[in-house]
Amino acid sequence: MSRIIWVLFVGFFFWSTANAERITINVEAGNNQGLIDAINTANAGSSFDTYHIDIQTGPNGETGFVFTQPYNGTSNALPVIKRNITFGNTLVNNTRQHITFTGSDQNEFRLLTTAENAHVTFWRADISDFGVFGESGGAILTTDDSVINIKNVRFENNYSNMNGGAITCTGGGGASILYSEFFDNRASNVGGAISIEGRGYAYIGAKDLGSSTGNVFRNNSAGVFGCDLNLQSTGRTIVDLNVFEGDSCQNVLIENPLGDVRLTGNTILHNGAAIDSTGVMEAFGNVFMSSPPPGQVNAFKGGLDKPQAVCNDFGTGAFVSRGYNIATEDSCFLDQPTDQPNTDPMVSFNDSGLPVLDPDSPAIDASSAEVYVPEGLDMAILPCGYVDINRVARPQDGNGDGEFECDSGASEFMGSGMVEAGHSGAFYNGLRNGEGNYVEVLTDSLAVIYTFTYRPDGSGPSWFIGVGEIHDNGIVIDELLRPIGTSFGSGFDPAAIDFSDAGGMSMVFPDCASGGMGGSVAYTGHEDSGFEGVLTRAQRLTSITGCSSVPTANAGLSGSFFDPERNGEGLIIEWLENGDVAAIFFTYDLNGDQFWTFGFGTPTGTSVTIEALYPSTYTSWGRDFNADDVVLQSWGTFDLNWTDCNNLEFSYNSTVSGYGSANRDYTRISILQGTSCPDF
Q1: Is the pTM value of this prediction over 0.70?
Q2: Which residues contact 320 (CB under 8 A, 6 or more apart)?
Q3: DSSP letters of 394-406?
Q4: Which of 1, 223, 272, 342 suits a disulfide with 188, CB 3.0-4.6 Å?
Q5: Could you tell me which of 621, 672, 666 has the C-alpha nearest to residue 642?
Q6: Roughly how many angstroms between the first and final C-alpha of the chain, as a whole number?
Q7: Best CA proximity match to 498, nearest among 42, 54, 21
Q8: Which secondary-structure segment (H or E) carries 119?
Q9: Ranges of the chain whose pLDDT falls below 70
Q10: Do residues 96 and 89 touch, judged by C-beta distance below 8 A?
């Protein structure tokens, strides 16, 4: 990620609220005692605070830790964690390095145990060679009401001679496991990779109610059942968008003796029984493949003379199809009109060993084109998430019929198009007039997306911001932010803003013009935020460089600008092809809620006055959106004067009571690809 974008977002990872503080503790990689001391410091602190243990590169270039003995004679390499801790890492050469945590070759102790109400988060890490005897949880064990959050972590060669070769969750807490890999983990009993027990919950490949990037399970093994997953919790388990490959499994990949499980958009590959379940197992949009695909001879070594039934419920009626599933045989109780039993899904493997759909696969555009509401929930979720297992933005128009429909399984067949500099601009859905997206293409691999919309309860405006990765014809954002916590004007306090992760999104562009019905936009939010999943369209509203990528006059003055002393609000500015200037001011209202106002103006030289509008009446996010409820009224004026390409004088004069006027100096925080600064 480019340095300029980290300048933009560095403040988004350091926040405090009225009741809690974020405390950073720096530790050098390779300094085991320093890491232990940091955890003990956090354990001695307030239960309200969040401790960010920032792992910095060691003096000899170390990027991780090697443990040769447990901590104080326990079964853990580290002290039991009883507070909220995030293990993060510093920026090295403009990228985030993976932290390595390596145990003993003899698998003699786990990495850590969480207890009480701790919330522990690992981002970008490799955890390998840990193990325990006579206990569960080879690398990580959660107890009490603690929660483990895993994102972009590789678990390899971890072991338990009981349950959960990599992770065991017990008690009433839970786990959220995203975009991670579980390779060659082993349990002598059940749950070769993960065992969920007690009364807790688990999101495996899902981000709360909205699907996210799933996980890859490969070559895990269990002595009894559940080479990948053992699910015996009284809580809810969500298993979304994962790939399960059973090369080394001698029994069943997923064992569900007790749980209530939602199985959505997974690709399950095993030459034998894939799922045993006597608990409830709802299946939506999955691919079940019980034998090797063509050309994959000996890909699955199940140790069986012939394939067993993929799904087994032992007469309990556990399996409930919600449609859009594909299976090579008919054992998974696929009884919906949109199911395809006894069908070859035509799956191949790419160079990373991940499944991809062949061009003639019946899974292409075979799943839902709309959000759906699972049984027992009030909020809609995305049927296939916003990104597939190969980082392809979803949903695509794989068959070229103009409709964006999900593919069954964890992989998406890519349609036409390529994101380019000309995609910088504003997009909206003509059927949802009153909300939209601003796209800033920064490099061949990075873009920023701003979304302007309304709160779920219809009480006022809302906005999101995120840095996305460009993958061919799509932009994918895994950490969408919705800053909250401060007020407009003199009441603005950047230290009070919460920049925490609010979900994820993607945009897909079949072409640059995005005319007609345009591209696809997919959002997913968190359950506690109320922002349900949304699938909508991206029709072009404005253009800066044009699809020919020939910049217009003063196009280089476009971009995002802010006051460094007021991080958390700012301006998006577009010098349009027709010569006008568009600007949107994203900020907060007098009550401390999110707010935005926008407008257009005709410039004089490098100055412009914008007649600003704002939504004075509102609609609601998601399925309850009604464009007729939105009324725009005059907010006042913006005056923008560029003193050079990277700095401008920003003043506003509002006619709405309480907002007043102010003059501020703004500086650039983004440069659009395909533009250059004019002469001053």
Answers
A1: yes
A2: 280, 281, 282, 283, 333
A3: SS--TTSSS---P
A4: 223
A5: 666
A6: 30
A7: 21
A8: strand 119-128
A9: 1-20, 90-96, 107, 207-212, 291-308, 549
A10: yes
